[in-house]
Amino acid sequence: MTRKKIAAGNWKMNMKHQEGVILISEVVNMVKDEVPSTTTVVLCPPFPHLGYAKKMLQSQPNIFLGGQNCADKASGAYTGEVAAGILKSFEVDYVILGHSERREYYKETEELLATKVNIALENDLIPIFCCGETLQQRQSGQHFELVCKQLTASLFHLTPEQYAKIVIAYEPIWAIGTGVTATTDQAQEMHAVIRKHLAGKFGELAQSTSILYGGSVKGDNAKELFACPDVDGGLVGGASLKSREFANIAKSF
Ligand code: PGA
């Protein structure tokens, strides 16, 4: 059983055109020099960056592009939305789905996310499916149950062939953008619970699922997080906007 090791950068709604060009060129150079080709690097910039970014990544076989979201419809009159098929036509390979910011600010429900997962897979995109609890949910001891429910609701309808493509990102909401990282014990504990839950439905396939940790991952904490047996990489927000920091994370496996 080998799991893909993944360092994914979620730029969120940051970086103007020229800033993006500089960041990508620096990341490409650092990854080329420092990151083994067995590590998968994924850059998830805002949509308008994807076209030129693809051209800049031509020479770098282990750096991929991801969208931060996609529509729940295939095409048509949905002003402001971006379809999975459009992303794929720009040679995008991944899409983040179910990020807590989408769930909270844009009211994305588990049912909607199940639809988005389907449409991403139909268009040959790899969903990076996010799950995670609030601080209050953790403090009241509901965190395991809640995260498992998120997975069940949006992924358990998949066929084994579809499920095999999914990447999971566990992102405790209290750790996102706060500078507070989950301890390695907290991360490992939850990742093991997630893998067991997935195995309950998909059996052995769960051993091959990459489960990323997200929430204030930095160059100086990535190594200990990635050393946990069930942590297969990171979904990185703030630190993905700095090339040196992000490259340090990507070489922390
Ligand atoms: P952060 O964000 O690294 O800035 O905490 C992670 C995420 O939201 O994906």
Report on this model:
The protein has 253 residues and is an alpha/beta fold. The chain has a single domain (5-250), classed as Aldolase class I (TIM Barrel). The protein has helices at 17-34, 50-56, 84-89, 100-105, 110-122, 135-139, 143-155, 160-163, 184-202, 222-226, 243-250, and strands at residues 5-10, 39-44, 63-67, 94-97, 126-131, 167-170, 211-214, 233-236. An eight-stranded parallel beta barrel has the order 1-2-3-4-5-6-7-8, surrounded by five helices. Helix 1 links the parallel strand 1 (5-10) and strand 2. Helix 7 (143-155) runs parallel beside helix 9 (184-202). It starts with a strand and ends with a helix. 45% of the residues are buried. Bound molecules: 2-phosphoglycolic acid (PGA).
Would you tell me the structural class of the helices and strands?
A: alpha/beta
Bound molecules: 2-phosphoglycolic acid
What about the largest sheet? Answer: 8 strands, parallel, barrel
Secondary-structure element order, N to C:
EHEHEHEHHEHHHEHEHEH
N/C terminus separation: 17 Å
Query: What's the domain count?
Result: 1
Q: What is the spatial order of strands in the main beta sheet? A: 1-2-3-4-5-6-7-8
CATH superfamily caption: Aldolase class I
Which value, in Å, is the CA radius of gyration? 17 Å
> Fraction of residues in helices?
40-55%
Q: In the CATH hierarchy, what is the class?
A: Alpha Beta
Envelope shape: globular
The fraction of residues in strands falls at 15-25%
How many β-strand stretches? 8
CATH architecture: Alpha-Beta Barrel
CATH topology: the name is TIM Barrel
Query: Helix count, per DSSP?
Result: 11
Q: Mean pLDDT, rounded to whole units?
A: 97
Poorly predicted parts: none
